[in-house]
Structures are given as C-alpha cells and as structure tokens.
Specification:
The protein has about 400 residues and is of the alpha+beta class. The chain is built from eleven helices and twelve strands. The longest helix is centred in the last third of the chain and has 25 residues. The radius of gyration is 21 Å and the shape is globular.
Length: about 400
Amino acid sequence: MIDQEMKKAVLDNFEKVFGKNDNVKAYFAPGRVNLIGEHTDYNGGHVFPCALTIGTYGAVAKRDDDKIRFYSVNLDRTGVVETSLSDLEPSKEAGWTNYPKGVIWAFAGRGMKLDKGFDMVIYGNIPNGSGLSSSASLEVLTGFILRDLYGFDVSNQDLALIGQYSENNFNGCNCGIMDQFAVAMGKEGSAIFLDTADLSFEYAPIRLDGAKIIIANTNKKHKLTDSQYNARRSMCEEALAILQKSLDIKGLGDLSIEEFEENKGLLTDPDMQRKAKHAVYENQRTIEAVKALKAGDLERFGELMRQSHESLRDDYDVTGVELDTLAEEAWKIPGVIGSRMTGGGFGGCTVSIVKDEAIENFKKVVGENYKKKIGYDATFYTVSIGGGPEVI
C-alpha cells in the first residue's frame, strides 16, 4: 500500500537536490513490528514479526563516476553527505549514511562490487528512534536498490542476511536477524513465524476481526548500538557456553522450559540465570502464541503478550518506566486484547491489539495517564500489515 504523497515527495526532493534526471527510480521498504518473541532472535529462538505499510522511500539514479551522494528529507539540515566507492569506512561524520554505506561494503565483501556510484534521496515515515526498525528498513532498501540497479543475483533472504551482517560488522550493533528478515520477507496480511536457528519460516495470516494493531511510541529515543543491548547478548552467550558443557544445545532456543528448570542451577549468577530464563520462556511463549492465533484464540494471544512484557521487565531488564507505563495502563482498558513492548527496549514503542470500539478510549486514557506520569506525550499509530520491498 504505497503512500503516493511520500513517493511524490521523495522524487520531487531528488529533482530539487540533484537536478532533473530521466533515469531516477523510486523504491520502498517497510518498517516492522514484532508481535511477540523479543530478544530471542540472537538466542536461536522463534520470533513473530510483520512488515508494516509505513517504511522508507528511496529515489535513486546511477552516476558516471565513483561518487555516492546521500540526502535524507527527514534530516534535511544535514544536507548532502558525499562519499565514494573507495571510501567505504564507518565514520561518525557519516551519521545515518553509515547504514547504506555498510550495505554497499557488505555487497563488495561478497564479490558484488559497484562499477559506478549513485545519488540517493530517502524519506521515511517510520517514527525516528521508535524501535520499528528504521535502520533495517534502510539496509534492506539499499540492498534491494543495489540488486535492481546493478543486476546482482541475490534473493530477498540474502538481502536480510547482508543487512544484518553490515549492521553487526560495519555499524557495531550485534542485532539478530529478525528485523532485516521481517522487512525483506514481509507479506501483506501475514506475520512471519521464523525459527532464527535455521531460518525456516511460515507465513501466518493475521485475522483481527473487529480489532486493530496500535503502536504507542514513548517518544523516548532508543539507540540500539548502546552497550546495554550488546551486554544482554554477551550475557546470553556466556550462559549458553556454561550450559553447553552439560547439554547438547546450539542455542538457548533449543531448551524446553522443563530442561531449563532442571539445569538452571548451572548458572550460578542470578542475573545471568534471569536473562537465560527470559530467552527460553519467551521462545516457548512465541510458539504457543502462534498456535493460539491459528486456533482463533486472540484472548490467549493477548495474555501471552502480557507475559512477554512482564518477562522483559522483570527478567531481561529492558523496558524502563516509559514502556512499563504504556503497557500497564493499556492492560487496565476494557477492549485491549494484549499489549507489550516491542523492539530492543530502553524506549521505543509498545504494540497493542485493541478492539475497534475501544481504540479512542484506549488512546485517550493511556495517553493522559502517560503524560501525567512521564511528563510528555506518547504518540499513537494504527498500523496495517504490509509486504516487503518493491520498485514503485
């Protein structure tokens, strides 16, 4: 569901910034929201994200030299950021352009080198710093553009892996595969039930008869490359290494709840035990949630969303007062089927499933109580499930 105004704006801005070019092409890649299965993707567990109809628009034209010029309508004060194919190094000065640069670098590392540079204008309608994967959207968009403009032979799944690789190794954030996979492999009307251990997946249709998905943004920016995210990941890796001395497992996602409970004593650090517990329990919740959805049991799905948030709050320590306030206020509202934080945490958004007749009351009451407690407004978005990247 392409927003024609966004498409027009990105093309108009291309002409304004770089001049008229008959070869300019327009593209789109979605943002994503994860319905359940948080911080399981780097632990070999299951996740359940879907692509959204909001995302990142790009207008691009090839050049005749090795220059690459970037411009973001959202960050217009930054102006044009220029680099070249011989300068694919991450730098503080490069700012947001480190994401597309990282993808070009990762393509080159796989033997797909660009012969010429390009001019690129991007314009996104994903709230910045919201945890709805603006970085993964930009990475997949860049990979999709490179494939289309330069004729590289890569699948959408490859685009997800290249995006993740570039974020891990060029941008220094140890994210799992979920965000890029959800963006690259999105399907309208369906969420993706993905086993991150082997990338096997299935599309599960989301039938929310008489209900909608509402995103509530804390408006507290989160930055995933922050040490806290990477610290959680390394603690889980440490827990896995300890458990592997006694158990034949590849990831924490391989453990059932019973197996974890029998062996958790091997993790003598209580904090590490709680982190590992979240990874194991959250994985099982995700498997159960998809079964509930398939059986049409939305109430059970909502209950599992709540349990997920409580675990992220109490065991994994990634929520914070802003996200807790949004989720806890949502749980009090009649007609809210489920609500939880989504994304990496430490700010960002909650995702809620709300019955149609309760939406206005939900926004009003949760919004008022949030402002009272936090001191500034939350922003609410009703979102639809969209498809993957496309040429527009």
